[in-house]
Specification:
Number of strands: 7
Structural class: alpha/beta
Shape: globular
Number of helices: 7
CATH class: Alpha Beta
Order of helices and strands: EHEHHEEHEHEEHH
CATH topology: Rossmann fold
Number of domains: 1
CATH superfamily: Flavodoxin domain
Helix content: 40-55%
Length: 201
């Protein structure tokens, strides 16, 4: 069973960001099913954790609900991450969510990137902002990222958007099935006995 976490940072409800996240998720599930794999999906609406994220930044500790969500994302086999584009980059709320993840939480994890905006001229934000950030986090980013401008939801442009979604989902699925995530060892799995730390027996 492949576990997929979906992080959507749309601010409105409903939002085009969540719509794109759902389309990417459905295409990935279909591609996995075609390859003989099953998937479970956990969706994270970042807007629901806005106050907890601020508290985490101020105190250094994640409230219980946020902690469970962060653990769910870190424990997934793959991640679909979608943000609205503001001022030529990802939203502050989207960035904050990934800022409070534990170091190396996404190391080796296949990631499919998506973004939405009012104009196609913001599409390069996927390459100059999102892709470098996830590369820094040691994630394995799918070659194709999907940007959806307002006009992409019009019936005349839907075919083009669908083709990009299918291509991205196929690449993401290949990463999930051909090169399963290499997980590091947890240093707390085998702790050193306290007496040994003190040098006593």
């Amino acid at each position: 069973m492949t576990r997929i976490a979906v992080v959507s940072a749309g601010l409105s409800q409903p939002s085009s960001t969540r719509l794109l996240a759902d389309r990417l998720t459905a295409a990935t599930a279909a591609a996995l099913s075609a390859s003989g794999a099953d998937a479970t999906v956990d969706v994270v609406e970042v807007r629901e954790h806005a106050r907890d994220l601020a508290d985490n930044l101020l105190t250094g500790f994640a409230p219980t609900g946020l902690r469970a969500t962060l653990d769910t994302v870190a424990g997934a086999d793959g991640l679909i991450a979608v943000t609205p584009i503001f001022n030529a980059s990802y939203s502050g709320l989207f960035k904050t969510f990934f800022d409070v993840l534990e170091p190396d939480a996404l190391a080796g994890m296949p990631v499919l990137l998506g973004a939405t905006g009012g104009s196609a001229r913001h599409s390069l934000a996927l390459e100059h902002a999102l892709r470098p950030m996830f590369s820094y986090l040691h994630a394995v980013v799918a070659p194709t990222a999907v940007y959806a401008a307002s006009e992409d939801w019009a019936s005349a442009a839907t075919e083009g958007l669908s083709a990009r979604i299918d291509r991205a989902a196929a690449e993401f699925t290949a990463a999930l099935t051909n090169t399963p995530r290499a997980r590091g060892t947890d240093p707390y799995d085998d702790p050193v006995p306290f007496a040994q730390l003190l040098g006593t027996h």
